[in-house]
Amino acid sequence: MNQPPVSKKSSPVFPWLIMLLMSTVTFLGILSELMPSGVLPQMMADLNISEVQTGNLVGYYAIASAIFAIPLISMTMRFNRKYLLLILLLGFAISNIVAGLLHDHSIIIILRVFGGICAGVMWPMIAAYGMRLVSEKDHGKAIAVIMAGNTLGISIGMPVMTSIGNTYGWRTEFVGLGVVIFIIAIISLFGLPSLPGEKLTKNASPFALLRIPSVLIVLVLTLLGVMAHYGVYVYITSLVDEIQLEGGIESALLLFGIGSLISVLVAIKYTDQHLRVLTIAMFGLLILSMAVFLLFGRLTGMGHVAFFIWGLSFGPLVTLLQAAVSRQVDTAKDVATSVQSSVFNLSIMIATSVAGLLLGNYSPMGLVYFAIALAVPGMIISFFAKKALGK
């Protein structure tokens, strides 16, 4: 399709401060989603619930994001982008602060669902919001900078938050994050530009998008890429134990985070010009890292190399997929990215379920084979998807 004309609101100079503020929002957004996974034992003991019930606090959040993203994005298309984002930030802050103060598991579930609904709207809308603030040639860069917060939140923010939770308690972690989100909302009130919403047309509806072959290709790549990565990531501790990695999970996360940071910087610079090459490389590096785990993971130093390569692959995942789907439409990019975001969250849920079954019947290396089996077709499809991803 032809690319959309440059928005009157877009700037010829890349607005780094605004994009970094938006990146902070995605950084805090992913922490809000994943926090319970780092303090499961504490929450189990304090709330007197099982491990499955505690783990579901992440699952309910993701399910709510997946279910409500498309309808709520469509309903809020006309809303001013800045004020919609402020409302969502307040929702994140309230859900975390109140959850950290309560002892009723049922109400905490409701708060997690509420937070997930806010996330379902925030993830697709913030990327589209950012793209409308820059010229067309910088759309990929805008997505890369904004979504860098997601990657860094997983690879760097989560270990830090988990350390805070283990040291000062999970309630302090939840309330503290909520307060920080509230502060960022205040900064955003003064720091983000006001931007009107858009009119939702029949041609830009979710169902119309699903009739575009290039959109379907991007959604398939999303399914394959997310399942391959998260099927292993959710049980990364088991993989560390399996290969007896020197330095344990802390060492693995550090190298994974360094690799992610490097690839995010590469994505920021090259996504607009080389989207297809980067997507092929993302799948290829994932296959390489998993092969190193299989063949040399227990050799001194090789496991560390594998985690670094895996981080290189993981870093640009969100950026590349959102940039790809946004290229397929001229208007209502929020709707396009909401469809992709829903598939992303559903892929995480599927990956978690399938990986749990594999782990229950095989060693953690079964998850590595699972990742390779998904990444190979992903790389092949990316190679031939010249219309969807560009030359």
UniProtKB/TrEMBL annotation:
Keywords from UniProt, A to Z, are: Cell membrane, Membrane, Transmembrane, Transmembrane helix
Major facilitator superfamily (MFS) profile domain residues are 18-390
Query: Has keyword Transmembrane helix?
Result: yes
Gene Ontology molecular function: any one: transmembrane transporter activity
InterPro entries reported in the protein's UniProt record? MFS, MFS_dom, MFS_Efflux_Transporters, MFS_trans_sf
Recorded topology in the membrane: Multi-pass membrane protein
Q: Where in the cell is it found?
A: Cell membrane
Gene Ontology cellular component terms for the protein in this record: plasma membrane
TM region positions: 12-31, 58-76, 83-103, 109-130, 142-162, 174-195, 215-236, 248-268, 275-296, 302-321, 342-360, 366-385
Cited PANTHER family: CHLORAMPHENICOL EFFLUX PUMP RV0191 (PTHR43124:SF3), PURINE EFFLUX PUMP PBUE (PTHR43124)
Kindly provide the name given to this protein in its UniProt entry. Answer: MFS transporter
Per the UniProt record, the source organism is Gelidibacter salicanalis
